[in-house]
Amino acid sequence: MLPRGRPRALGAAALLLLLLLLGFFLLDGRPRGAAACDPHPQADLGGHNRSDCVLPRPLPPKCELLHVAIVCAGHKTSRDVITLVKSLLFYRKNPLHLHLVTDAVARNILETLFHTWMVPAVRVSFYDADELKPQVSWIPNKHYSGLYGLMKLVLPGALPPDLARVIVLDTDVTFAADIAELWALFAHFSDEQVIGLVENQSDWYLGNLWRNHKPWPALGRGFNTGVILLWLDRLRQAGWKQMWKLTATQELLTLPATSLADQDIFNAVIKGHPALVRPLPCVWNVQLSDHTLAERCYLEAADIKAVHWNSPKKLRVKNKHVEFFRNLYLTFLEHDGNLLRRELFGCPSPRPPEAERLQQALAQLDEEDACFEFRQQQLTVHRVHITFLPHQPPPPRPHDVTLVAQLSMDRLQMLEALCRHWPGPMSLALYLTDAEAQQFLRFVEASEVLSARQDVAYHVVYREGPLYPINQIRNVALAQALTPYVFLTDIDFLPAYSLYDYLRASIEQLELGSGRKAALVVPAFETLHYQFSFPSSKADLLALLDAGSVHAFRHHEWPRGHTPTDYARWREAQAPYRVQWAVDYEPYVVVPRDCPRYDPRFVGFGWNKVAHVMELDAQEYEFLVLPEAFTIHLPHTPSLDISRFRSSTTYRGCLQALKDEFLQDLSRHYGAAALKYLTALQQP
Amino acid sequence: MLPRGRPRALGAAALLLLLLLLGFFLLDGRPRGAAACDPHPQADLGGHNRSDCVLPRPLPPKCELLHVAIVCAGHKTSRDVITLVKSLLFYRKNPLHLHLVTDAVARNILETLFHTWMVPAVRVSFYDADELKPQVSWIPNKHYSGLYGLMKLVLPGALPPDLARVIVLDTDVTFAADIAELWALFAHFSDEQVIGLVENQSDWYLGNLWRNHKPWPALGRGFNTGVILLWLDRLRQAGWKQMWKLTATQELLTLPATSLADQDIFNAVIKGHPALVRPLPCVWNVQLSDHTLAERCYLEAADIKAVHWNSPKKLRVKNKHVEFFRNLYLTFLEHDGNLLRRELFGCPSPRPPEAERLQQALAQLDEEDACFEFRQQQLTVHRVHITFLPHQPPPPRPHDVTLVAQLSMDRLQMLEALCRHWPGPMSLALYLTDAEAQQFLRFVEASEVLSARQDVAYHVVYREGPLYPINQIRNVALAQALTPYVFLTDIDFLPAYSLYDYLRASIEQLELGSGRKAALVVPAFETLHYQFSFPSSKADLLALLDAGSVHAFRHHEWPRGHTPTDYARWREAQAPYRVQWAVDYEPYVVVPRDCPRYDPRFVGFGWNKVAHVMELDAQEYEFLVLPEAFTIHLPHTPSLDISRFRSSTTYRGCLQALKDEFLQDLSRHYGAAALKYLTALQQP
Hints:
2 copies of one chain form a homodimer.
Chain A: H1 6-26, E1 66-72, H2 74-91, E2 96-102, H3 104-117, E3 122-128, H4 129-136, H5 155-158, E4 165-169, E5 173-175, H6 179-183, E6 195-199, E7 223-231, H7 232-237, H8 240-251, H9 262-272, E8 277-280, E9 286-287, H10 295-300, E10 306-308, H11 322-333, H12 353-364, H13 372-379, E11 384-385, E12 401-408, H14 415-421, E13 426-432, H15 434-446, H16 448-451, E14 456-462, H17 470-479, E15 485-488, E16 493-495, H18 499-509, E17 518-522, E18 524-526, H19 538-547, E19 551-552, H20 567-572, E20 577-579, E21 588-592, H21 608-618, E22 622-625, E23 631-633, H22 640-647, H23 649-670, H24 675-682
Parallel strand pairs in A: 1-2, 1-4, 2-3, 6-8, 9-10, 12-13, 12-15, 13-14, 17-22, 18-23
Antiparallel strand pairs in A: 4-7, 5-10, 6-7, 11-14, 15-21, 16-23, 17-21, 18-19, 20-22
């Protein structure tokens, strides 16, 4: 026992100590990491072993909005950004605001994508990269990322002035953890620190990798700028713009150009102002270049938080564990993006108005309705990735025609033949899963014929729901056609070799440009032969018809679809002739780009083209059959939807209901003129 | 200033305090949660808001082996287990040991699956559920899970005696976080606590849900047993077996049966011994039953860690946020399981020998080799899920024949017709992605014809790699055939309606059972018509042949494949006749189940059947053509592989290399007898 009197003083001191300690551990509700856990740039590249030092998981307040900036230009990089964003969304639990600095191509793609993706609690803002170009174009740069690689330097000026902090990401980064954990590291910045960066995981900046290798100046191994925490308002206050320009100008007196784009300049600035940088744990930017030293980081770390494919070889880079990282990347590449439409619980995240309307419409559907699947499918908004592959829009020409069609994976093998038959522009919509989109990409890259064509635009409509939304897919292809006319066809037809030239000549001759409202009919035929020598002229085709190896399309199974084209007259015709609409007529036609859209209510099999042609007629298009035009259907396996149609009375019943509703809408829209369709359909 | 002399004592006391405090926070390297964070079962159902109380993320030591036990029986539950395991694997960073208590069906499926999955650092042990049945079969149980629902009670006795702790999971649980975080909660157990459970998120155990509703006794709302932390050795020491049996026996004196299987008994035991239970945070078992109160938990919580579909309606359950949870579930349901073959960095995880051999073989491939893709594809071990759907093996019959074929998604529409043409057992292998497997499931469930058939076994071979591994897929179907004979066919053929009966009669007549080595040839025909009236007899077929609407199969494009069948003789034949092998012969045959396997080196298009028939001939099977047998090929789109074959000289070159290697192996195996194939092939 201690003598009386002392305990009081001791007790008070102990209480004080206890409070101090508790304060240290529990202030703001979470234990802070010990100082020994802080990564130190000059030390070594290693991660921090869990057994040595446990960093508690710091998190920003629930529902705090996190800001992410990404520079993105071109078709390929747009695809990359989507994979990055998928990995972000997979783990995130906070609302996100994406700030995308884009060229026109990327903006076009990503605007459509995010608009149709409708991810709750994700806001997207676009900034025009071309406007920023003058600010960096004076810097000679040898990096493969080009001018866009330098744009991260100007973000403090380009982003809204009230935006205080942002995470900046390269497009070749994949997340494997919640980005909120990265955002939380802002809380570790000292008052002076403005840029959070992970140390470089290569010896590049140490210099002397080869004779005369003279890198830009850097602190030790320098820092990698694939993942940056930018404290924007502090940067603006510190005069960042002047600072980096001055540094770059000075260095460029002795160095010919940047080798690693913005990264060289960031490192040179930091070399001069080491207090600006907050080093981040290596796991937030595991760099997978060829001679990466990243292994030291990730073998020790329990978690890998973000992976950076910072070799020009990207996924083809070779290192010991690349299979692991590739799997991680493929996980998000092939992940069904529709599943990322998950809402955030407990964070108020008002939906955009169209998403709200959609929710209400879906909520009003009756699950017991026999046609529930049809109703649901009609309402589904499909994610759309336009110009999935590089595409060069055709030069504006007054009579040009784009071939418009849609397909899914089971028709990919038609594409090469189609390219051979149609030398003009095409707008093709593909109905694919995320994983299939990658298969499609590989398919095109492996094909010399397809990869040589820059005038074929491929638009991916992502699969969702049990029925094939054929008209929604067609509408995507149609909306993306850039020429004044479109040839609306199906993917299993091959047009006559001369059709593209012939159509343009016909459009000119018939003076369709001067307001004549016409749909030019391309007569459709079919062959049942797997291997088939395609007729090189109308005379050849007539010979094959006579020999019985080619027929009018579906003349056995569904003669009404094409009978009005009048094949007998076509045989003899020398000039275009007008034909009249009749029930169930569904010819393949050439029309102006601003023709009516396909009615999206027709999902699955049946009446999808018939309704469109009916609407053309209701809008008083004349149907003119072209005497030298033809297209031939090749044999294929019947689709699943046609099998369902044949086997299911419910299916046929629902289709009938759709038809009836369509006709009602037609009457409402076109009034008495539409009566003729009702009458015609009522006849036996 | 304190007077001299005192500081020493004060300092010593303070140091002591400091050490105590540090010990409290940092013992075993991680801060422990404050007592205020502990969930309390009697309190309320809410989670713990991050702003009130932040539990640091506790983790077990890196590389600690975690044990998970799951009870699983039947085809459907086996599929569910795989989804659960995929969610576990996705987030895990520790080696896992799965303890699967299974019936014979589930064991057969899951053994094959894990064997072919080859996930590093995952060990699987099986325990026979049927052996455990007597221990629980005396308990009357009304729950839909049946007897298997009670088996969690006997795990302390059934699992190895040296297994100290285990996480027990229901098959309808989906993880959304690293299971190591759950495992780490064992560290929070007091010395008395033996069972970790999440409180029930429904009012069931409060009673009075309806008139005469009398649930089993429970503490308050009771606990849900979908996720359990079981401290096995403490349970064994505490006499668990006697304890639960005694409780159950006593309660069954007044209650007629368990309503919720094991959960009723666990709760009754805990009611009597409240000190046994360690309540777990609600986020580890978010219960999605119809009237769930789970919302109180997950709206407050930042993270949902594990979701439990504990309604008999499963994914069809209705609650406000079910779309969110469904998306989470679909994420793993459709996730490409191949991507989960990621190794664990920094944890020594020796691969199984076959995985090691495979790695070495893959490492030896030359990426510059023009046929690299072929080599890689041949070596690929595909994940295989046998009997993906409910299947009733055929009763043993001495002359029974199973139809064996393989297909991918684009041939699903053949299945109904095939079922109508072949009333006997079938073994069909499907080459699918994980997502396609779900589409396939829905397709079968929507089809009356298909869902009525219990004698058709569907085996899923998961897609991996660019070339179609046709012979590997065929071998899976062949290996799973359970009758003494197999009819080896392709999916786009429809057999004569009488073929099944006729084959069995022929096998009996020809006395194939008594050692006669024969391959019965089923002559193959083709039609080019979409819609086709299938001949009901040989006479009908001959009429169609004469009319030119049916031909011998590929007699225009590839006559060598079937010419040796001698169609002219077949027209007249009344009895089986023998024909000789010839180059490129590839008839459809009936052979004993133990026939040679298909050579897996043939991937993609070409020579896959030819090589098999050659090997039958090398093994001296006689080819006997059956006079009344026929099968007819329906038209379909050419496969992508045939397109690649036609367009790529490299592809054809690689196929030639495969052929040459196959012939060399044949010579090595069959010696001089195989010379005839070399000679035959060298002839022009």
